[in-house]
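Handout for the seminar on molecular recognition.
Each group receives one record of this type.
Step one: identify the two inputs.
Step two: read the structure output and locate the region that could contact N-(iminomethyl)-L-glutamic acid.
Step three: write two sentences on what you found, then compare them with the reference statements printed after the record.
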Amino acid sequence: MSSNPRLLVKNAQQVVLICNNGEKFLTKLGMQNLCVIENGSVVIGSDGLIEAVGPAEVLRAQYSRASFDHVIDATGMCVVPGLVDAHTHPVWEGDRVHEFAMKLAGASYMDVHRAGGGIHFTVERTRAAAPPELLASLRGRLVRMQRAGTTLVECKSGYGLELQTELKMLEAIEEARRTLPINISSTYCGAHAVPRGKSVAEATEDILRVQLPELKERMSAGALGVDNIDVFCERGVFDLGSTRAILQAGKDMGLNINFHGDELHPMNAAQLGAELGALAISHLEEVTDEGIAAMATAGTAAVLLPTTAYILRLPQPRARDMLEAGVIVALGSDFNPNAYCCSMPIVMHLACVNMKMSMPEALAAATINAAYALRRSDTHGSLEVNKHGDLLVLDTPRWEHLIYQLGGHQELIRYVVIKGNVVVDNNKTMQL
Ligand SMILES: N=CN[C@@H](CCC(=O)O)C(=O)O
Ligand SMILES: [Zn+2]
């Protein structure tokens, strides 16, 4: 194997580092003032980690005698870190295009859920699916996310709601993690809905006494790597008491708490998460001022999901209030059969237009802060020496075009690089 640096990306018009002092997250003004090098280069070593990043002429002198396995001439282009998608549900069978029509005609998310559709519809089909079928659709979705610039993605289970199917989903995620270049953070979400025929108490009991112990055993045996625990804390789904019990049990097993809260009704989920030391809470369309203050104090990230409010016509999450209070704001696509979106550039665009975030805030939220929400910001989320060499080369002289050009990412993203390997190369297509 060659010990040459794996990749040189040279002479980029802009290299957006995001930050350069080992920050684990950014808040307030830090999100406005991203670290950008004009006319810069990046070197990724044979171990896939960033070896050097800086002004092009400095790196040219420093590496004047080196040879590289691969060189990308980024003259006139921009380099940004690989995007981080902090919230997805990508393992399932059974799309819900018919429900999209119902929602367009006025049905609410909970109307559909109560009528036996929504998550329950997908649960039935996912329970019936064979593992290879589940893995194939998962792989297709992850490849699509990667083409849209995502290099680290959180993937949830949660369409089984009983042990065997939850394990089948987590195994599919594990197999994808082993065989695809995209980085994955795996989340057990057995409390995504109360299964048909069970009460909340019975479902909670099953998770605590059956599902989590089996998960723990497989994790200790090294058969399964799970990073996070999730619960859909919502009126008519899991109440505050059952949410607390499940999250605490997951935390006791060493999982990060990262859950759905305050989405459709104010539940005081943000306060509960802050009290339990949650790493992140998603949605928060209905969070209260007290919840925002508690999250800011606890360092709990808010994972905002602009596609949900957009598709369900919900009130927008109060991003500006959270940003001003110093909450660590991150973004996710919420890819699921309700919100079929694989593109973080579109998510950033929606965050800017509908949630009033600035473009630098949106990029920080989709890189370093999303990595923080997955406890990966020591290795991902910015272009700093010794972090993973995950980056995008954009065919534009200013990085903001990635957000500005709604749906234009297919044309803008020339290369997607993960650990110094080019995993998407649109250069050839562009020249046709
Ligand atoms: N709100 C709960 N879970 C998902 C939706 C899942 C589904 O509808 O299948 C979400 O984050 O939007
Ligand atoms: Zn979700």
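Reference statements: The pocket of N-(iminomethyl)-L-glutamic acid (ligand 1) is lined by residues 89, 118-119, 122, 232, 260, 263, 308, 334, 336-339 (CB under 6 Å). The chain has a mean pLDDT of 97.
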